[in-house]
Amino acid sequence: MRYRDIEYTVVQGLGRQLRKWRFALETKAVTGKAATRAEAVAKAERAIDRALALKKLRLVPRPGEH
């Protein structure tokens, strides 16, 4: 699946009520678990939003940058 140009996966875990989600951003993998597929998708997309928010560009340029 794809969200905000980030590829992520949702797979069924060993238990019937277990779904696992995963995505990679640069060299860091982010994973999580949820009870349903819909919940796993929502959690993965929120995690992607949080990860991308941390990567926002600086509003004030560093000295010497233009």
**Strand content bin:** 25-35%
| Major sheet attributes | 4 strands, antiparallel
Order of helix and strand elements from N to C terminus: EEEEH
What Rg, in angstroms, do the CA atoms define?
15 Å
Task: Give the overall average pLDDT.
Answer: 87
The helix-and-strand class reads alpha+beta
Low-confidence stretches: none
Give the terminus-to-terminus CA distance.
Answer: 37 Å
Tally of contiguous helical segments: 1
Strand order, biggest sheet? 1-2-3-4
Task: Give the beta-strand count.
Answer: 4
Which term fits the overall shape? elongated
Number of structural domains? 1
The portion of residues assigned to helices is: 25-40%
Fill in the keyword field for this structure:
66 residues, alpha+beta, 1 helix, 27% helix, 35% strand
What do you see in this structure?
It is a single chain. This protein has 66 residues and is of the alpha+beta class. It has one domain. 27% of the residues lie in helices and 35% in strands. It has 1 helix and 4 strands; from the N terminus they run E-E-E-E-H. The chain has one helix at residues 37-54, and strands at 2-3, 6-12, 19-25, 28-34. The chain has a 4-stranded antiparallel sheet, with helices on one face. A hairpin with a 6-residue loop joins strand 2 (6-12) and strand 3. The termini are far apart.
